[in-house]
Design goal:
four-stranded antiparallel beta sheet; 9 strands; five-stranded antiparallel beta sheet; globular
Length: 178
């Protein structure tokens, strides 16, 4: 399971159109499905399904009634920088709202013993495409600026992730609009 910020549909559509232009004709990459574009806040790993409702309640209660995080697409980052396994879109976090939501969710889920915080700081981003297995070296994506329109996160969502050979399947278990 994981907790994520979901994008509004118009921002998702703009980002998918831009990303699809960047990866057109590339057989070495597997673009993330449009409905799977999100900003991960907390990755919980395996959790018993019976805990999903309690996890969702702790998550949603932890944030109160904040202003929705406003994010602006910034730049593409290959990860790792040499021989990337994926390409991510770095997001500027206006007034650190996404970081504040992530911090509140992290504390609540740690208190509930569903989560152990990561040592590295939270980085607002979304995965655009993954390098296919067996590809030794993926060239960088073209240097084409992403859409520059800021967007407000639409929802806070608890997801179940099911790994499959053709890519992970993300199923929303609980949602809360901002």
């Amino acid at each position: 399971m994981f907790v994520a910020l979901d994008l509004p549909q118009d921002a998702r559509d703009d980002l998918v159109e831009w990303r699809d232009r960047l990866v057109a004709g590339r057989s070495d990459l597997r673009p993330v499905r449009p409905e799977a574009l999100h900003v991960t806040l907390v990755f919980l790993g395996w959790q018993d399904e019976s805990a999903a409702e309690r996890i969702a309640t702790a998550t949603f209660d932890s944030v109160g009634e904040p202003e929705p995080p406003r994010l602006t697409p910034a730049e593409i980052r290959p990860l790792p920088p040499r021989d990337p396994r994926l390409f991510a879109l770095d997001l500027d976090d206006e007034d650190d709202r996404a970081r504040e939501v992530q911090s509140a969710v992290s504390r609540a889920l740690e208190d509930g013993r569903w989560y152990r915080p990561e040592k590295r700081p939270f980085w607002p981003h979304m995965t655009l495409a993954r390098v296919k297995r067996g590809v030794r070296r993926a060239p960088p994506l073209p240097d084409d600026e992403p859409p520059q329109e800021p967007f407000a996160a639409a929802e806070l969502t608890l997801y179940r992730s099911t790994l499959r050979p053709q890519g992970a399947l993300y199923e929303p278990l609980a949602r809360r609009p901002f």
